[in-house]
Design a protein that fits this description.
The protein is 62% helix and 0% strand. The protein is built from 22 helices and no strands. The longest helix is centred in the C-terminal third of the chain and has 17 residues, at 375-391.
């Protein structure tokens, strides 16, 4: 079998590491084989590429260096930071960030974990070298050929040697090269340079490059420029990815009403799209509009019956609405789907206690403790103590839940 065909077959079967090894063998024989070079780029990128829409979150530097704030005191219902208080019937505890507890732990609900702008500020120096990429020494080889030379102990591609204008005009190589620089090398600055040159080469008619520019601008903190690029891309070709990225931009700008407007417009183009409905439900939940949020989560379950986030959020709503027996049914569904962690067993234990299934409480908390680590273990012990105090020695012949766990 031809080696390149075998490498391509391995790539299509998602055996990326083996595919990259075969491409390396081909490049050892011919360092200027563009087909093998491109396939290896795609294989290496596929190994580390993730859905960065869900991974985006506001870090400390993003908050401190925010220059897009319009008003410090926003009107009620128009800001995620000043969400109205929940009603007594659906009162939920608050997290450390001040937001109501949700059924899922999402990146946007955590504080102090984001490093998007911090990493972006470091991009003038590459991950492979401490030398700033703006200083170049004399080269004995042409930039195009030197960038494709692969050294045994060096990086696969010398990004600093790339002639961006040359590769931007090569339609079959430009997009895999951008994804490689953006995801594998995590070099936003050079990825942005390539996207700018490719946009010019495409005469500003390729929506894909506009989305790529928006992604780079968003990571560099240029949210208004990213918004302009995403809207321009949506005028040419509406895509779910561009709609979601535009929603993330408005979330960073603390404009939830614009997020809802964009999602509703997107649902007219992509009816019953699960990701768009989930985004609406999240924003409504952040605004403490719990009933409407649960309505959208139910619509998500209508389209995707195994959506973990929708099931968990609906279960939380039932639990804090004094219906633990209904919440228990949803949590058991998650357990049947294969979800197995400390948080789930902790919630099942609480639901069993408040639903008066006392025979299951101790077993659930024991499972939660066996799976819990660090802060999760502290939360589980807090709930055990609460149940032990309130339980009044109903289990195990007069022993409280806490005593039963210590005995076992």
């Amino acid at each position: 079998m031809d080696t390149f065909y075998e490498a391509l077959s391995l790539y299509r079967r998602r055996k990326f590491e083996k595919s990259a090894l075969l491409c390396t063998e081909l490049l050892d024989k011919n360092p200027y084989d563009q087909a093998a070079w491109t396939l290896k780029m795609k294989a290496l990128t596929a190994q580390v590429m993730v859905d960065d829409i869900e991974a985006e979150e506001e870090g400390i530097a993003d908050s401190l260096l925010d220059t897009e704030t319009i008003a410090q005191a926003a009107r009620p219902g128009t800001s995620l930071r000043t969400a109205p208080a929940a009603t007594a019937a659906g009162l939920r505890p608050r997290a450390s960030t001040g937001r109501a507890v949700s059924g899922m732990v999402r990146p946007a609900t955590q504080s102090g974990l984001g490093t998007s702008l911090e990493n972006a500020l470091k991009t003038p120096r590459t991950a492979r070298s401490a030398r700033p990429v703006t200083t170049h020494a004399a080269r004995t080889l042409r930039l195009g050929t030197a960038s494709m030379m692969t050294q045994p102990d060096g990086p696969f591609i010398q990004v600093s040697r790339l002639n961006m204008s040359k590769y931007a005009s090569l339609e079959g190589i430009a997009k895999p090269l951008f994804l490689y620089i953006f995801y594998h090398e995590n070099d936003v600055r050079n990825a942005l340079d390539l996207a700018v040159e490719a946009t010019k080469a495409a005469q500003f008619k390729d929506w894909w490059w506009k989305v790529a520019l928006g992604k780079c601008y968003a990571l560099l903190g240029l949210v208004r420029d990213a918004e302009q690029q995403f809207r321009s891309a949506l005028k040419q070709v509406p895509t779910v990815d561009a709609f979601l990225r535009l929603c993330s931009i408005y979330t960073k700008l603390d404009q939830p009403l614009n997020v809802l407007e964009v999602c509703n417009a997107a649902l007219k183009v992509f009816p019953n799209e699960v990701t768009l409905q989930t985004e609406i439900a999240r924003i409504l939940e952040a605004l403490n509009n719990i009933p409407t949020s649960v309505k959208y989560y139910r619509e998500v379950l209508t389209e995707e019956a195994m959506n973990v986030e929708a099931i968990a959020c609906i279960a939380v709503n039932y639990f804090y609405s004094d219906q633990p027996e209904v919440a228990l049914c949803f949590y058991r569904r998650l357990l049947q789907m294969g979800l197995y962690n400390a948080e789930l067993f902790n919630n099942i234990g609480l639901c069993c206690y408040y639903a008066q299934h006392y025979d299951m409480v101790v077993n659930c908390f024991e499972r939660a403790l066996s799976l819990a680590i660090d802060e999760t273990a502290a939360d589980v012990w807090y709930n055990i103590a609460h149940v032990a105090i309130v339980g009044r020695r109903r289990l195990d012949g007069g022993n409280s839940v806490l005593e039963t766990l210590y005995i076992n």
